[in-house]
Amino acid sequence: xxxxxxxxxxxxxxxxxxxxxxxxxxxxxxxxxxxxxxxxxxxxxxxxxxxxxxxxxxxxxxxxxxxxxxxxxxxxxxxxxxxxxxxxxxxxxxxxxxxxxxxxxxxxxxxxxxxxxxxxxxxxxxxxxxxxxxxxxxxxxxxxxxxxxxxxxxxxxxxxxxxxxxxxxxxxxxxxxxxxxxxxxxxxxxxxxxxxxxxxxxxxxxxxxxxxxxxxxxxxxxxxxxxxxxxxxxxxxxxxxxxxxxxxxxxxxxxxxxxxxxxxxxxxxxxxxxxxxxxxxxxxxxxxxxxxxxxxxxxxxxxxxxxxxxxxxxxxxxxxxxxxxxxxxxxxxxxxxxxxxxxxxxxxxxxxxxxxxxxxxxxxxxxxxxxxxxxx
Length: 376
Hints:
One of its GO terms (cellular component) is membrane. The strands form 5 sheets. The chain has a 4-stranded mixed β-sheet with strand order 10-9-12-13, with no helix packed on it. A 3-stranded antiparallel β-sheet has the order 1-2-5, with no helix packed on it.
């Protein structure tokens, strides 16, 4: 008598029930007895839905995971390269503005209307006594250094990569918030003034912020969204407090009209300055400027009253300035774009220039300087 096959959980158990022959006829290596009957124990064979070549499937899964990891690593590395590049550009931009701010120089007095110099010299270019370009240089430097370390996966002080990404996210959030506030200031308090460097910095800040959002996962952003909002509020509130006593620069409308007027030089000239001016005139050096340019006046003050009268100076708006006024032909032919501008031996020097640098550029010899000192 045979029993039916019973299948349990894909494993086939085969039980054979029959009369066992005498031990003398057939020997079974494994058996058990129940109530005087002997039952052979057949091996249990389990079938599985997974493929039999499990050894081949494991390497395939491992290869797939490895490929996915490499793809994510490449994406992150590419993102951090963008961070580093944009941060480096921001450092160059703010380093130049920092130099101008610290030295008291100006970008240029542009032809008509406001300029980056107006913005850079305004009360809004300082935050709690610290020049704004200095703060920008530091933040761009932090972004550049941190993104470079994240790209290499080598963060200092045992900082994890997740915390490093959160820190980068926080810095770029603060930068984007500050840039948005500065754009508001530029369009309201500094209306009529243009600042190309400010706009470039704002573009870089927003780009870095969007890259950081892309780098941080959505689930992680949800964890820190409250902190980011608080950080943005703190930045805007701090700037508002700092600018509470700031004075807006006068609006420069398109119909502004400036009649020509003479500027007065108040300082006295030294024999050295007079001798230098005579030497500059002898080699055909020229200074181009505009009557309303404060930096042109400061350049003349360096020479002094007597020397300034001898200076080979070209006024680019001798008839005054108003909408539609064209620059003086001599200035246009020389390609003048800002004031003051020096042209010495076919070389162009922009902005205020120290007398020592003018002497070096023009080949003003030490003997000539000594002769000037002897005349003193």
